[in-house]
Every structure is written in C-alpha cells, then in structure tokens.
Write a structure and sequence with these properties.
This protein is α+β, with helices and mostly antiparallel strands. It is built from 25 helices and 18 strands. The strands form three sheets. A seven-stranded mixed sheet has the order 12-13-14-18-15-17-16.
Length: 796
C-alpha cells in the first residue's frame, strides 16, 4: 500500500472536494480552477487551457484532447476510433504522409517519448513535447494539433497500410492477459455499452470497413465543441491565446451534430463472479470490486475523499502485514479506489497468490474486510495514516515550483474530460491541512463502510489453466462469504513500534580530507574509516536529497554453489527489518517520514540507492548505518519470502515470452551457470545461512564504498556523515570484482523455436563484440540506435 500512496494521492490532488463549515467555503461550491491556468472557450465551443511553467527548462507540452473514444463507435465502427488516431500520423492537408513525424523528429523529438497519442473508452488524446527556444516551432506545433483536429487526409492507400499496423498492434497485445480480460470485462461492465466497446476493437471491422465508415466517425465526433487544446511550459500566455484563436476559430460543428451521450455502468443486482483461466497464465490474481458513483467535484465532497484516502492507507497496511507471516496467505495484496470509466469508480481489494493458496487468500481478504466492517481501526492506525498523508502533501507543496509540465497537462486533461478538479497545490495544501486536523476516526470508518456497502460486489479470479488444479464453484465461494460474515472475528491488534531507530548514537568518526571540483562544483570527503563521500548541492528540487553508494565485488565474489543465495540477499534483508525493528515495526516507525534506503547486490557491485526530504535526513543516515551494523536474521521473514517467491514463479514457463527468453539466454551464454533462470526446481540451491552471511560480508567494510549525495544538502550534513558513516567499523581488506566470464558466445548462431497459442512471433537480432567505452563512442552508438529506430518505424 505504501507504494500506492503517490498514485492515490495524485488522484486525490486533482479530483477531490471538501465539505464546508467554518473554513470559509460552502458545501455546494465547486473547487476553483488553479489561478495559474488561463482558460477560455471559443465561439465554436473549443476550450483552451494555458499554464506557464518552467520545469523542465526549455520545454513546452501540447495536448489535443478529443472528448470522444471507442464507446461512441457505431456497431460497424468497432476499433475505428483507434485507427483514426493512427491515421493522424499518416498525413494531413498540409503535411503529406509522414512529414509530421519527420518534421518533429528533425527538432530532436522522438516518436513515443515526445510524440504520441492514445485512445480510450471516452477520449482520444494527442501529445507533443517540443523545445521552447524557437517561437516558430510552437506555432508549427499548434498547427499540427489543428491538422489532427480537422484536416486528417485519409488517403485510401495510407488507410489500407495502417489497417495492418493496427492489426499487428492488436496481435502483439494478445496473450493470456488479453484473452482473460475479454472474458471478465463484460462481467464487470455488464448492462453497459462499455462491455462491447474495448478501444482495440474488432479486427475484422478494422481490416474491412469502408473508407466512408472510417471518415464518418471522424466527421461525427472530431468537432470543436468536443475538443480542448492544452499548452503548458515556457510560454507567453497572451501569444498562445492569439495563436489558438487564429488557428481554431474558423471551424464549426456542422449541421445537426450528434449528441455526445454519457453511458452508465449499472450497479450489481446481486453478487457476480468471473472465474477465468488460461493455459499461458503464470499467476493467480483475485479482486473483490465494489462499484461506486463518482464524486461530483464540489467542495462538499473534498472531506469525503480525504476520508477515503485515509481509509485506504490504513487497510492497505493491514493487508501488507499478512505477508510477514511464516506461511503468508498470498504473495502480495492491494486495495484502493480508481475510476474504471467516466461514470463509475470501484473500490477494490485484491491479491496475487500461489494457485494452491487461492482459497486461503480469498478467505484472508474477506476476513480483513469483515474485521474492518465490524471494528473499524485503532487510534494509532488513524494517527499514522494522517501523518503519512500530511507528510506527502507537505512534500508536494514544498516542491510546487519544480512540478513537471507533464503533470499539469495530464491534470488539465482530466479536468476537461471528467471535471476532476485542478485547484493548484496552494489550495490543496490549505484545505487538506484544515480537513485532516478536524477529521474524526468515526468519519473515516463510515466512509470505508460506505465504499464496501452500497451494492453487491464483483469477484474476478484469473489464473493458470491446469489439469492438476480446479477452480472453486461460485456457490462454494458464496458459502465462504456467508461463513465469514457470520463467524467470530476479533479486532485488529496494533503492536506499537519503538520510539528510536537506534539504541544509541555511534561514536563519530571524522572527515580527514576535502577536495573540491570547481568545474562540476562537487566536493569529495575522505573519511577516517576509509570510505569516501561525494556531494553536490543542487536546486533541481527544493525538498529532496538523493543518495547512492557502491562498492566493487557483488555476486562475482561468491562461488557457484552460493551464487543463487547471493542474488536474493538484498531482497531478504529488506524484509527482515533493521536493528530492534522487524519489518512491520520498521514500516510503522517510518510512517510520516520520507526517507528510504534500498540495498542491492548486483553481479559486479553492491550498494544502495535512496532519498529523503531534508527534515528526515537523520533517519536516512541511520538507515545507512544499520545496513552495515544492524542487519537482522529473521527466520519468519525468510520462510515468508521463499513461500511467496515460489508462488510467483511456479508457473513462469507457461508464458511463451519467458520460454523464448530462457532459450535465448541459454544460447547466448552457452548455459553458463550464472545465466540460468530461477525456477522452483533450483530452490534447493538456496541456503538461508548463506543469504544472511553473504549480505553481511558484502557490506562489512565501508572503506570499499563511495557514497554520493545530491540535492538539498541539509545544514547538519557534516554531523550526519561523521556520526553515521565515518563511525562504521572498517576492515583491512579491500576488494575488487572478479570476471566470471559470463560472455556472449562468439560467432553466428541461429535459434528458432515455437511456443504459445497466438499467431504472433518475436525476432531478436543481437550483435556483440569488443567495445571501447568512451562518452564519444556511447553518443555515436546511441545516435545509431535512434537512426535505426526511425528507419524501422518508416519501414513498418
């Protein structure tokens, strides 16, 4: 759940609303649009949103947003909304064939990263990112948006070519996931038009529809009153408004334009199931979904949405805790709210599990859900969730001047399409802090119960199709619902974490030498224990300190019998906690703090990556110290990790992509022991004692390490370095990595194999050889790669 908080909060920032009272706003008021945004409507109904923004430097983000997607297709047009999106890049009135892409790529932009589009159920969005240093380029970019909106050429020859491209895109996406989705989405969307309007469409219609049928969708739905132009970046707003009016004002909506209908997804009349299996599925996934109506975007609902986010944070942490059991019921679990289409959201509880744990996982989810419905949650859980949310929005507020233009463009796209508010972080910071300080635990519990209780749920279970495993009957699953709802379940017990991460502050070491690189403006400190610290103060972000470290050695220093254990060492240690804290206690201690350290052991190096905000710098440094001095051995964590890992990979060979990749690696590296994939049959090679000892050995000597810090360097940086890094005891021996000769086989080798159900293929051509690593050679190689990508795109 912790990893989902940024996602949930991104939704929260742009789409929630709050109740009124003593805070100076009334319940019926709409949330205001960010005052930094210039918004207007042309006489023909086209809307524009313009926001000056300087991050990143010298970039402008352009969007053409069409309020029309696959849900508006007629029965003879399934898939044509997507085909038209493709046709936009194949020629317009003033840009023949592929000149749009040729022109944009000539300015340094790349197809995919800077030039792209997508088609959804309810919308089609075209995207261009351009440099800001040439005013003519901005004018041309806006002209391209105009061409896509009204002047796509639809040459017969280009249409016929692009049909094949769409078919191949569909074919490439086929597989177990797509086949299972085709079965369960109609259940989720039952009674709604969405069930029969997936954006990829019907390939027979894509291949055979008439030119007139294709153009009819474009004529019907690409019209000014269903469009918005969004411009964010280093711009002059007045100039952009003038250009938009000049380019877009002359177009009209035609005679008797079709009504743009909104399509509902009805609530369930009873509990419904979709149990789908596939011979190429590799994991078992289950979700319990509750449909809910969307918030209307008024301030009356702001408070309600904050309650929803807090409830999801708490429940998600509870689900996480169950993975720390000796025999966990699932590999991992998740919960949260999301919009499935424009008119409906879902609250979902789900898990990925081993196939033999399907019923235990299902019961565990239902039991935790029932526990919450009966007892709510504890005061300590409520306090931690509030601190977590406050910490996150505080960080967003402190970085408000460094927000990327892409974020604002996406936010304004949602504002236009769905009415999800975009008030600006200043408004959010003020209102959210007030609301959180006023909320009661009972309010949040009531919201959680509302999310789960307004209609019958939809249960979706997907997984491998195997003779050795049978999925339960829906009637039996119904009995589990009944038994749990009527059975005995006790309240959740919240075991508090300790107050201090470390029992005592280490005796500090010292900085023994300092050098300064004037060209790049960074400092190097030599420490008394032999380690080095390299740091640079930057202003890319206001409230972030980034950290990494490395030491030579990695898995290359262990012999083959210990190799597999070494590859899992960092994963297991992270799940074992640190110092006096097990993993659950450590997670609780870190709630409300933004500080993370992730160790790794790769083939040639071991090290860390991490980040923090300045106020949590000491926590970051203490975590670094404990990974050297306070690693825990936790047998329960080991058993949990191995159980979940086995469940995750037990069916990996059912996927043809994995079979192909395994065979390719075997051929490339001549079955070298260190290139073999991890399979269940190899678990006997893993030794618990080796896993912990290898980690401790790799992180035993700080003198091997160089530590890097960049960002907002805190005032107490010297104290933190000397206290928590220079204090780590050193050993005498310095190490280097060993070449284990994991090299690609020389010569021309051909591998051909067949696997999978779908009629599709993959081709890999791999060139290998010696290489002189220099920045110049790298630049030339990257340029060659980009050139080949352009050539391949043009040929295809």
């Amino acid at each position: 759940m912790k990893k989902l908080i940024p996602v949930l909060f991104a939704v929260f920032i742009i789409s929630c609303a709050s109740t009124g009272g003593s805070n100076g706003y009334s319940e019926g008021d709409a949330i205001p649009l960010d005052p930094s945004v210039r918004h207007g409507v042309l006489d023909n109904g086209l809307e524009y949103f313009i926001r000056p923004n300087s991050e990143p430097d010298n970039r402008i983000v352009l969007r053409l947003v069409i309020n029309a997607g696959s849900v508006l297709e007629d029965e003879d047009q399934l898939g044509l909304a997507h085909l038209i999106e493709h046709m936009a890049f194949n020629g317009t009135a003033n840009f023949e064939k592929h000149r749009i892409l040729d022109f944009l790529e000539s300015t340094g932009m790349s197809f995919g990263a800077d030039i792209n589009a997508h088609t959804g159920f309810d919308e089609t969005v075209y995207k261009i990112n351009i440099p800001a240093d040439d005013p003519e380029l901005l004018e041309t970019g806006l002209a391209i948006l105009k061409e896509w909106a009204f002047e796509i050429a639809f040459e017969d020859e280009e249409i016929d070519k692009e049909r094949g491209v769409v078919v191949e895109e569909w074919r490439a996406g086929r597989g177990a996931g797509a086949r299972m989705r085709d079965e369960y989405l109609p259940v989720l969307f039952s009674g709604s038009r969405y069930a029969a309007r997936l954006p990829i469409g019907d390939m027979e219609i894509v291949k055979n529809s008439s030119y007139a049928t294709i153009k009819r969708f474009y004529t019907d739905w690409y019209r000014p009153e269903l469009m918005a132009v969004i411009v964010v970046g280093e711009i002059d707003a007045d100039s952009v408004v003038m250009q938009i009016k000049k380019l877009f004002s002359s177009y009209n909506n035609g005679n008797n334009p079709r009504y743009r209908e909104e399509f509902e997804v009805p609530d369930n009349k009873e509990r419904q199931y979709s149990l789908v299996s596939d011979p190429e599925a590799s994991i078992t996934n289950m979700q319990i979904l509750y449909k809910n109506d969307l918030n209307s975007g008024t301030q009356a609902e702001y408070r309600e949405y904050i309650r929803e986010v807090l409830c999801n944070i708490i429940f998600g942490h509870r689900l996480d805790e169950l993975t720390n059991q000796n025999n966990p019921p699932y590999i991992y679990a998740f919960s949260g709210s999301s919009n499935i289409v424009r008119t409906k959201s879902v609250f979902s509880i789900g898990a990925v599990t081993a196939e033999n744990n399907l019923l235990p996982a299902f019961k565990a989810l239902l039991e935790e859900n029932e526990r919450f419905m009966r007892y709510g949650f504890t005061d300590s859980e409520f306090l931690r969730a509030k601190n977590e949310l406050i910490s996150f929005i505080e960080s967003a507020y402190n970085e408000r001047e460094k927000t990327k233009s892409e974020f604002f463009a996406d936010e304004l796209t949602e504002y236009y399409l769905e009415g999800t508010p975009a008030p600006g972080i200043e408004w959010e910071w003020e209102k959210t802090g007030t609301i959180i300080s006023e909320l009661t635990k009972a309010e949040v519990v009531d919201t959680g119960r509302r999310l789960r209780g307004n209609n019958k749920s939809t249960i979706i279970i997907t997984g491998p199709e195997k003779d050795s495993f049978n999925y339960p009957e829906t009637a039996y699953l119904d009995t589990i619902f009944t038994k749990i709802s009527e059975g005995e379940i006790g309240p959740y017990e919240d075991i508090p974490a300790g107050v201090n991460l470390m029992d005592s502050i280490p005796s500090a070491g010292s900085v023994t030498a300092e050098t300064h690189d004037e060209t790049a403006d960074f400092y190097v400190w030599e420490l008394s224990n032999g380690s080095r610290v390299v740091f640079k103060n930057t202003d890319f972000k206001n409230n972030e300190l980034l950290f990494s470290a490395f030491s030579p050695g990695g898995t290359s220093l262990v012999e083959d019998p210990e190799y597999l254990s070494s590859t899992l060492a960092s994963n297991l240690v992270q799940l074992s906690g640190l110092g006096n804290f097990d993993a659950v206690e450590l997670d609780k201690f870190l709630t409300g703090k933004i500080a993370a350290v992730d160790p790794y052991v790769s083939s040639l190096y071991e090290g860390f990556s991490g980040r923090c905000v300045p106020k949590d710098s000491e926590t970051l440094f203490q975590l670094i110290n404990l990974y050297f001095t306070g690693v825990r051995r936790d047998d329960i964590a080991y058993n949990s990790f191995m159980s979940r890992l086995k469940g995750l990979i037990e069916n990996r060979e059912s996927r043809p992509e994995i079979v192909f990749q395994d065979a390719l690696n075997a051929a490339l590296y001549n079955d070298h022991f260190r290139s073999l994939p991890l399979t269940v049959s190899r678990f006997d090679e893993i030794d618990k004692n080796e896993v912990y000892s290898i980690f401790n050995e790799r992180f035993s000597n700080p003198a091997d390490f160089t530590f890097f810090f960049a960002g907002n360097i805190p005032e107490d940086f010297l104290y933190f370095v000397e206290t928590y890094i220079a204090s780590i005891p050193e050993s005498a021996e310095l190490e280097k990595w060993i070449d284990r000769d994991v090299s690609i086989v020389r010569g021309i080798n051909l591998l051909e194999m067949k696997a999978g159900i779908e009629q599709k293929s993959s081709v890999n051509i791999i060139f290998s050889g010696t290489y002189d690593w220099t920045l110049e050679n790298n630049t030339v190689l990257y340029a060659l790669r980009d050139l080949l990508n352009i050539r391949l795109r043009e040929e295809l």
